[in-house]
UniProtKB/TrEMBL annotation:
The keyword DNA-binding applies. Keywords: DNA-binding. Residues 20-98 form the HTH arsR-type domain. This is ArsR family transcriptional regulator. The lineage of its organism: Bacteria, Bacillati, Bacillota, Bacilli, Bacillales. InterPro entries: ArsR-like_HTH, HTH_ArsR_DNA-bd_dom, WH-like_DNA-bd_sf, WH_DNA-bd_sf.
């Protein structure tokens, strides 16, 4: 899949696709060619001279990059017609996941848009941003109740919480064995600030799962999916965090953060699963929250719930 992001062209690969591309770029000469082409178009003679390689060797390596669609070759008029090579992509992104989860029949997966919260209490600085503009007024908590909030691709606040409710699709007679939430998230600072810790807490069905201290509010480099109109001086992307609760406890990115188990969450007692994300009033690091949708930041997702149940 190809993504056009600002002035950056990204090649997004599955792990299987990445194997073939890695074979092509796993060569010093071809990597050096890509480095040179990142500065501007060159013909084979120019590449050969800069690399200190024979023309024939350079041409063979250019052809391999061309066959992999990593560079493009165009006929350019000048002193006669000459072939000029240019890089085709600025970045290569490899998705480190498989479709194994999709094949599991006992997994319920729901991707919740970040604007579909059912309750919130937020304090400035705060705001909602769509793919094309602000929603309501900045730093006005009333904007969080605008109907257009469902179009939000970025929401942020300094204190408070947002709460989501996922439909409970556990089949009757089955037992929940594990629940996992993943989201792109970071702290909220004025503009952005890499050193801006925030204690972010997660609750599932009103049970506190644990707190993670995000190190900062990330910016200065445009997120892969962040739209062009959003200034580079503001927050650009977050970190993709995975919160998991099973019979052994609660985990964040594989590290246990509390003893709360899936049995403590009463997942069979309600027609919905509640997820609350917030910064406590007494948090030591009250650095706020940025939540990203699929068209902002680095990851094409909202807040994904994976709920596993018994066979």
């Amino acid at each position: 899949m190809e993504l056009e992001v600002f002035a950056i062209k990204v090649l997004q690969l599955t792990m299987d696709e990445a194997i073939e591309i890695s074979k092509v770029i796993g060569n010093e000469h071809r990597m050096n060619i890509l480095k040179i082409l990142s500065t501007g178009p060159h013909n084979v003679n120019e590449l050969s001279e800069k690399l200190g390689l024979p023309f024939s060797t350079t041409a063979v390596n250019v052809k391999k990059l061309e066959d992999a669609n990593l560079i493009i070759t165009e006929l350019v008029p000048g002193r006669g017609t000459q072939k000029v090579n240019s890089k085709n992509y600025d970045r290569i992104v490899i998705d480190l996941f498989t479709d194994a989860m999709d094949k599991e029949k006992n997994v319920i997966t729901i991707d919740m848009p970040i604007g579909e919260y059912v309750d919130c209490q937020v304090q400035p600085s705060c705001g909602l941003v769509s793919e094309t503009d602000y929603i309501g007024m900045q730093d006005d908590p009333r904007s969080f109740y605008e109907p257009g909030r469902r179009e939000a691709q970025l929401l942020y606040f300094r204190h408070g919480f947002v709460e989501y409710r996922y439909p409970n699709r556990i089949p009757y007679g089955k037992k929940a064995t594990e629940i996992e939430f993943s989201m792109e998230i970071c702290s909220e600072a004025p503009y952005h600030k890499l050193d801006w810790p925030s204690d972010i807490t997660l609750w599932i069905n009103e049970v506190e799962i644990g707190t993670w201290t995000c190190p900062g509010d990330f910016g200065g480099q445009r997120g892969f999916n962040t739209p062009e109109w959003w200034t580079i001086y503001f927050t650009q992307y977050g970190l993709l965090k995975h919160w998991k609760v099973n019979q052994n406890g609660s985990f964040l990115d594989g590290v246990q953060i509390s003893g709360v188990t899936v049995s403590d969450l009463n997942l069979h007692d309600k027609p919905f699963v509640s997820l609350r994300i917030g910064v406590k009033e007494d948090a030591f690091n009250a650095g706020g929250i940025n939540l990203f949708g699929p068209n902002f930041g680095n990851y094409e997702q909202g807040i994904i719930m994976n709920l596993r149940h018994s066979e």
